[in-house]
Write a structure and sequence with these properties.
single chain, alpha/beta, Rossmann fold, putative n-type atp pyrophosphatase, domain 2, 2 domains, 5-stranded parallel sheet, 4-stranded antiparallel sheet, 25% strand
Length: 229
Amino acid sequence: MKVFISWSGGKETSLALYRVMQNRDVEVAYLLNMVSEDGKYSRTHGISSKLLKLQAEAIGIPIIQRRATWESYERVFKKAVLEFRKKNIQAGVFGDIDLQGHRDWIERVCKCVCIRPTLPLWKEKREKLLKEFINAGFKTVIVATRANLLGKEWLGRRIDKEFIKDLKALGNIDLCGENGEYHTFVYDGPIFKKPVEFSIGKKVLTQPLRAGVGLKDKHWFLKLNVKND
């Protein structure tokens, strides 16, 4: 069975891909990545689209990037999946864990385009998933945080046992960042044929789009640069 995976470049989609790749009856044909309307950054994590292309190259699976605003996101996503269907792709893989609103959207959209949704991480324990990720040999870097919950000192950290311990000590943070507490970029691991090469850039705090926006609406971003770019 041929499938595509809804791709962010982060830990959940990487772990979902890893699990799916264990099934010899499944072929992951494409990574589908939604990017900003100017095509420069991923729509969800703010990662350079160039770096995501290098990531896909290092994995060895073609990446399809589609530009969209938040308003046009669903329409553009559906159009891309309809193109996949013409190539005999039967299912889509998603890395969501337990946000029911996300699953409702996935199931509704997939039903509209006659694609079967697969959520290999659904309802699993957060710490179990992170330990599986670490033990499998994945390497990742924190690229974004919600400013009211995690400061800029968290940017650039790797997910390891110390990271889990420090997050648990805070007490109010979802260990996998399911509520947007943090986002990641995965650069090496068992799904990779070679590591992704990059350099660490600036830490930037997003500015509010309107007066009165509080810290909870701001995010810290770590810029990752394509090496030698």
